[in-house]
Amino acid sequence: MKYLSLRLLAGAAALGLALTGCAGGTPATTAPQQPTQAPETSQPAAEATTLTVFAAASLTKTFTELGQTFEAEHAGVKVSFNFAGSSDLVAQIQQGAPADVFASADEKNMAKATDEQLVAGEPVIFATNVLSIAVPPDNPAKVAGLADLARDDVQLVICAPEVPCGAATVKVAEAAGLTLKPVSEEAKVTDVLAKVESGDADAGLVYATDVAGAEGKVLGIDFPESAGAVNKYPIGALAGSGNADLAAEFVALVTGATGQQVLADAGFGKP
Predict the structure, then answer these.
(1) Which of 28, 220, 234, 238 fits 123 for a cystine, CB–CB 3.0-4.6 Å?
(2) What pTM was computed for the model?
(3) 34-62 as b/e, with b when 16 or more CB fall inside 10 Å?
């Protein structure tokens, strides 16, 4: 018993020393937690207002330039264009396509919109245009005037009759007593020009402004008969526009000094 008591006392002493050593050591420390910060939230950018302009294909270059001018003068506004044949454009408007402004290459297609009260107010004539013969720069078919377009060996491309440039083509051909036999009739004048530029056609009847805008890719041949079919270009804000004020301002830009200068530089005639 005495031996056992001594062993118990020795064990207790050793345990005490061990506990004392633990108590004297440096306690483990943990880094203080940083307060949780809420994630930063960015405010969504304000959406731009879109002004949709339906315009004849022959206005592509001039209206694109004027659209950039309009955007520069109207912060937060983007001008979106739909360029096509005037007959196609007015059909889209009649079917409810959303648009703010309509610029036609003739009065006939604009009248379709005004007759259905789709235009706000009275359209304004802002430019005129006449036909010109476009041929490849080397003029392989040796076209010299309107009469040459009736030759069987000339691959001719024109606009479809319902398109303003096509209606003008029919008018000058009938006045000259010519029967044209085109290999293709296109829905817009820019498609006629593209076929001449690519060499797929010997000649095409386009507007004088299209020849000027081609910048040497085609050769233009003016003909006196074109004076008998002058196209007048009207523009108007549409009654269904959701941006009536901006639509009116775009019309004012086109008909004002800036727009008229851009159009004149491109070869359009005065209203």
Answers:
(1) 234
(2) 0.81
(3) eeeeeeeeeeeeeeeeebbbbbbbbbbbb
Q: Please provide residue 138's backbone torsions phi and psi, each rounded to the nearest 5 degrees.
A: -90, 0
Both 137 and 216 in a single domain? yes
Q: 29 lies in a domain? A: no
Q: Would you give the end-to-end CA distance of the chain in angstroms?
A: 131
Distance CA(218)–CA(134), nearest Å, equals 6
Q: Read off the pLDDT of residues 166-213 as tens digits, 9 standing for 90 and up.
A: 999 999 999 999 999 999 999 999 999 999 999 999 999 999 999 999
CATH code, 140 = 3.40.190.10
Supply the DSSP string of 92-148, one letter for each residue: HHHTT---SEEE-SSHHHHHHHHHTT-BSS--EEEEEE-EEEEE-TT-TT---SGGG
Residue 141's domain spans which residues?
131-228
